[in-house]
Amino acid sequence: MTATDAPSTSEETAAGGTWRDRAVERSLRNARAKAASRSDRFIRAASEIVSETGRTDFTVQTLIERSRSSLRSFYQHFSSKEELLLALFEEIIASSAAQWRAEIETLDDPLSGLHVLLERIHKESGATDGAGMNRALSVYHLELANNHPAEYARVLAPLRNLIFDLVQRGVADGSLRTDIRPETLAVITMQTLVGAAHMHALGAEPDGSPVDSERLWDFCLGGLTGPPRAPAGTPR
Amino acid sequence: MTATDAPSTSEETAAGGTWRDRAVERSLRNARAKAASRSDRFIRAASEIVSETGRTDFTVQTLIERSRSSLRSFYQHFSSKEELLLALFEEIIASSAAQWRAEIETLDDPLSGLHVLLERIHKESGATDGAGMNRALSVYHLELANNHPAEYARVLAPLRNLIFDLVQRGVADGSLRTDIRPETLAVITMQTLVGAAHMHALGAEPDGSPVDSERLWDFCLGGLTGPPRAPAGTPR
DNA sequence: CACTTTCGAGAATGACGTTCTCCGCCGCAA
DNA sequence: TTGCGGCGGAGAACGTCATTCTCGAAAGTG
Questions:
Q1: How high is the mean pLDDT of chain B?
Q2: CATH code at B206?
Q3: Which of A20, A76, B107, B182 has the maximum number of C-beta atoms within 10 A of its C-beta?
Q4: With an 8 Å Cβ cutoff, is A151 touching chain B?
């Protein structure tokens, strides 16, 4: 702690950091560069704290100590703590989505793309140590969904779009069902992925039922391609 | 508001109230009758407040005013506000699940049962007016999942068991896939249902993509029965 | 050097949850 | 009737936070 405000941000904090973490960090830094250097300090400090603790309930005091700044300037740049968190997670999601998109675009099968995406999301959310960011991200999703549903939908747009693009490609090449609008299919898929990631990240899965990413993928695949044939009857 | 503490609890608040709401209310009242009459007051008051406002962030002050009681006795019966909410939602979920189970057991096709269940959950969570309870329930799920994952899993058990039983029946009569353990299938299904209900309740669905219960069911059905045939390859 | 803008330090405020203290009230035994 | 033990009402007190406000001290500008 008390890191110099020099470049290297999180070499130590990203103890369990994978290459992906660092890549995300890097693109995050880019995004930051655009932002006013002032707000930057706060975002960076918040990012560090969240990465280390995996929680978003740090106090504003802690934040300003970490950012070597003052309450006054904090509230000069962000109208509230929530706004800061929103900004932080917006950046993270956007850059993660960009990251995933880049990785996935090298595959030509959209189903493989979805599978890979599912594994990324599920794995990252499951990282128990070091990558507290992912856990916090899951947790914060929920708070955000509660408090600002509209913002929530907006912030998740990059991920939704990524899934949507893959779904559309899948529809185009005939590997996905067409009896559900691709937009809807994408939203349902995203909800399923994100929901599962939440439970996984929180360890809220019941005892005897491990939801590993393969089973989850099998389930989604079924949902995405459609049932073998119309089974029994639909109720009234 | 300022309803008498007489019987009829939510006739007005349940403007969009279906018979089911009232049935749930009734069985809730039964459950209450068993509880110590003291704690009862608090649970009932909380239930009223939540039904009316659709939020769980009422202050303890409001609660004790409504329950015509005192802070002192509140903390004598519940160690914290959270514990109260937990108790309240445990009751609600348990009785709702019992209610649904009763309704569904009259159907002989397990798939129909799941379909009906999905519609119940989705509809109730979507009620925009009056039935604030359902909305609050969704919201509180999230908070609970965040703060006490273990309790969360426990409280949801009745619903999970209900789904599990249906899944097992479906497996038994050959209408559901067998390549995923029924426990896992049930958990995934529940996560999908509950997740969708959350988004629906919160209005957090993106603009152009209505996730109506039929589409959601189609998706789940696919996931539950399995893909038509193994399509393309799985990624590395 | 006056003058404005910027921002650090930190006190003040206001909401809440939670604890604590005082005291009346009710049932009960002698 | 009097004395007493405990339940529970009223509400003051405390601790933690987010958010605002106040006071100056640098730092750039003429």
A1: 82
A2: 1.10.357.10
A3: B182
A4: no
